[in-house]
Write a structure and sequence with these properties.
The chain is of the alpha+beta class and 219 residues long. It is built from eight helices and six strands. It has a single domain, classed as NADH Oxidase. The strands form two sheets. Strands 1-2-6-5 form a four-stranded antiparallel beta sheet. 24% of the residues are buried.
């Protein structure tokens, strides 16, 4: 069934305004860093709902929207997630990860302990859905990883724009998230994001991103 068509809203910016908005947004996002030291400061649930609505506005294959967002603020559930994540991470740091991988991580001071999973006021767990369950029928979704990746990117940008911080956390394997949160068989863990305000005095690495000439080829 073809959806009804509506006029596309035209912003009406001048060329100068467009350039300024692009530069301002770059300035905002260039300051974004992955944070591992969170405050337990309260973040209203309504703020998180708006951020997730922004993520859910991302494009998706055939508009199937193959994602589920689980918002976790319950301390007991956060504790269980931390315990399970640390168990997997301990194994990663003590045998699963290659020596090269561990050497690349050394400058960031990471290890298997993940206290931020309990300290941050919210955890957002993103699940991808290879198919939807419609009664007894399975309806295939398309470009699932690409679609959910786009939604995750929208969410990270929205979090930073709101003055909050997050960390892209992917303890592997992540099947424990499906079990702890009681998600159905058609949902697979994709990404775990602790979200909140930075802890007082929090520090992040002074990273230098690749210059434009290394990431852009113009034709």
């Amino acid at each position: 069934m073809t959806p009804p068509m509506i006029p596309y809203p035209i912003a009406g910016f001048t060329e100068q305004q467009t350039a300024e908005r692009a530069r301002d947004f770059f300035g905002l996002m260039e300051r974004r860093r992955s944070l591992r030291h969170f405050s337990d400061r309260h973040v209203p649930v309504e703020v998180m709902e708006d951020l997730i609505l922004t993520a859910s506005s991302a494009p998706s294959g055939a508009h199937r929207q193959p994602w589920t967002f689980c918002l976790v603020g319950n301390p007991d559930i956060k504790r269980r997630i931390r315990e399970a994540a640390e168990a997997e991470e301990y194994t990663n740091y003590h045998g699963r990860m290659s020596e090269e991988w561990l050497e690349d991580l050394q400058p960031f001071g990471t290890d298997w302990e993940k206290p931020f999973l309990e300290i941050a006021p919210w955890l957002v767990v993103i699940f991808k859905k290879p198919y939807d369950l419609e009664g007894d029928e399975k309806h295939k979704n398309y470009y699932v990883n690409e679609s959910v990746g786009l939604a995750a990117g929208f969410l990270i940008a929205a979090i930073h724009q709101a003055g909050l911080s997050c960390l892209t956390h992917t303890p592997s394997p992540m099947n424990f998230l499906q079990r702890i949160l009681g998600r159905p068989e058609n949902e697979r863990p994709f990404l775990l994001l602790p979200v909140g305000y930075p802890a007082p005095g929090a520090q992040v690495p002074d990273l230098q991103r690749k210059p434009l000439g290394e990431v852009l080829h113009k034709f």
